Queue: 2 jobs
Job 1
Amino acid sequence: MDLRTQTSLFCGALALAIAASVLLRGRPGRAQWLFAAFSVDIGLWYLAQWLYLDGRAQVWAHFTAVLVVLMPQLALHLFEAIFPRPGPSVLLRVAGGLLAVMVVLVMSPLHEHGLVRAAVLLYVFGLFAAGLLSLLRRGESSRSRVTQRRVRFLVVCGASAATFSLADFLWFVGAPLPPVGAVLSLVFLFVLAESLIRARLVDLYDMAGLAFVSTALAFSLAGIFYLCVVILGGFQTMYLNAVLGGIIMLILFDPLRAKLDAYINRAIFFERADLERAVSRARQELARVLDADEAIRLVLGVLEDCRRATSGALFLRDSLGAGFELGGAFGAEMPVRLDAASLRTLAELLSERRVLDLSTIEKQLGLVPEDRTERYSSNELELLLLSAENFGPLRRAVCVGVLGEQKDVLGILLLEDDRVEDAFSADDLQLLESLGVLLATVLENSRQHLRLQERARLAALGQMAAGLAHEVRNPLGAIKGAAQLLADFERGEHSMEFVSIILEEVDRLDRVVGSVLDYGRPAPASIGTINVRTMVERTLSILRSSVEYQTRFEFSAPGGELWVRGDPEHLHQALINLLRNAAQAMDGSGVVSVAARKRSDGLLHLVEISITDRGPGLSEQARRSLFVPFFTTKSGGTGLGLAISQRILAAMGGRIEVSSVAGVGATFTVVLPAADEPAGRPVNELTGGTLLTPEGTRADAGGLATP
Ligand code: ADP
């Protein structure tokens, strides 16, 4: 058996194996069936050729010819199935018409004639080329770049396979070529088969790269062997040849593979470069950004532009860490807020791994633990999937952690490409991880910048307020003194009324000036631990003793002691503001209920103090402007109480929540992070806790001024 005969047998078996591999993996669709038929046709063709060459029986020559005629027909149907078109295909109809003519020609006694052979050659390669061109045109018209590249990839493989097969046909026509074409065209057939099975484009590239590199290496090895045999002699020196060839390959393997890899990557695999370019562009531009919103817009914009993802979203943790707010998104519609508690498992894994490909989790769950690439237990994987459900349409996305210095999750970037499965390769994930790191730096810088800006703004406001206070309070004092003197002299009913108006308004102006001073330049904070129960009770007793209100304040704090950290004087002021508002909402009568309790929000332990009145509740306008400085609906109000309280609580890492039902009442709830019970004896009367000086050293807190 000569080399060509052997190659035919070898290629025939290989083509049949490729056909079987496509059918055996997964549930075959129309394209897979057609591909299998095409491969079987090629396989049988090689086998028939082998039988013909081996035994020279004429019947095999006919058989071979019919199989060749069928080949482009199957290929055309396959191309149609890979990327179907809406209308009927003219090409298919033309090919169908030619089929009958060709079969008649190759079965006729004239089939050995040179002209008939040339016609068959033209028919096969003409149709094949037309099919590939039409596939390419349809692919290019697709709106999805991934589809475009996929089709381009298939066309390059198909054209390469055809070109190498042509080399074999040339041998049929009489040109003396070694049977290399057959082997190479089978390599491309294998790559085509894989591209039908694998949906993930990047994997395809890896696989094709590997196939090309291995083939090139195999041919190099064969070449070296060939040279050895020619130079050193025949089969007797086989041992020496093998050793020599092996050593040369060992030396050349790495540099050769690196060179080939780089070349192939440059030549066809530009897809991966898109994300790399996008990330490096984002990196450059982020260096100049200080604003968090702008950073989010920029990152999402760049990712959307590079078109490697169909949807993306960025969630940012809120100040208390109780939830994640949607910072921006493209593609799919996303929820505006996610609860931190429901994302707990995901956040924990994210802070450890930085990037999670949620699309692989479900698959991992289907595997036995030993086969899993992610080393998690089934329970962990299930919890993770449950967490991921919160992302709605992006529940199978790639999830990139934006981690703070303590590896806490500041934000979550989600990216998904719903056109392909496993859209992001390991390299892509690494790129995205680096983007997450950069984004974290920008976010932290932006927070710091905002804090500094706020401080500068308040310092300016404080200075202005101090000047204003000086300018306004002096004349106010004079007006008040004069009005009081007037009150002593004047006894007329009308003048008395006017004088009391003057006095009331002067007091109100004085309060406004005082509040502006507080808002602009609050007293420096002295941080310490505060026993919430003691603090609330003392505040209530001060209010109860005030003649201003007949309101009854009821207080309940079930459970053990509650501790928070912060400036007790400031917290006291915030509580007074809220309690006064509640009493005023009920015109100074009725019952205000105050309750303090523990609350947990995800990983956070919190303490809440709720203040419920049975007043009129909040109007729509009040609800919108509650915390806006100077918003007030009261004739004697300053509109600064809630604004000041909110600032105080924000500085303690807390917030105020508001709920209200018109005609039933309103509840203002102070939420603060819980603190540990302090060791040692309580030293402060108001707070029931210890007090630290601003520098952070523990000190006796006696002498706190009562309001
Ligand atoms: P002020 O009490 O001086 O008006 P605040 O900032 O404390 O300033 O309150 C702003 C406004 O919010 C009030 O004028 C009132 O309209 C509304 N408000 C506050 N607390 C309540 C409450 N418990 N019930 C109804 N409305 C309230």
Job 2
Amino acid sequence: MTTAPIVRTVEELRRHVRAWKAAGEMVGVVPTMGALHEGHLSLARRARKECERVITTIFVNPKQFNNPDDLKKYPRTEEADAALLATVPVDLIFAPQPEEVYPDGFITTVSVGGVSEPLEGRMRPGHFDGVATVVTKLFGMTMADRGYFGQKDWQQLQVVLRLVRDLNIPVHIVGCETIRETDGLAMSSRNVRLTPEGRAKAHVLYEAIMAAATDIRAGQSDRMAIREAAEAIRAAGFDRVEYIELRDAETLMPSDDPARARRMLAAAWLDGVRLIDNIPV
Ligand code: PAF
């Protein structure tokens, strides 16, 4: 299997993309920070089905880490990532150095109000500004027609949807289903940091929010169902439940209106690893 060319500069990236576009080909981009797993590959496969050309970007974006230690520890596995992408396959891997993305003098921040503020935005100040800034840049650099994002990061997906709408960025966003392990745990690059004992319990996060969603649909009060979910997660041995919230699926504002699409979102710590998940209610 041949691996896709790894391109480091915007100039070279654009040379490829311009040639594809001149031939009338549709270009899809799958933005990632590497440490790829089946969840990322499913995005790339979807892009492969829908676009003539597929770019995967691999860039550990320093601007979205509010904890410098987390940034330092973030796994960098480019060779293994390229080998996995060859199984899709993708046409090009764009893996720039930080100086290519944020050259000297870089001063612009893209900040999406509203949807960026609660939940992850409150727990990780500056995180979504970093995401919005780099995603805007990646769209500009790749000139992609379609962008593929996982529903696992539901709030991020809503931030990106809002961003492209508000800034008239000509890219169609495709939100793809969360890919889960056989026990239900949402796939994430962080899962490998769990101890075997932690990994064995981690599925409880998903099960607890699923049970809460079922109870709410059956008429139980939101508050009671959420309290029971938090208790189940703590009882399974998680260190801490950071939040479990029922929100409007699009705006992420509190919602007790069952007529609107709602989403239950949760974040909890296990083994010193922060896990997030979400489901429709
Ligand atoms: O979801 C991620 O991996 C990142 O937040 C993204 C979208 C690649 C931006 O750095």
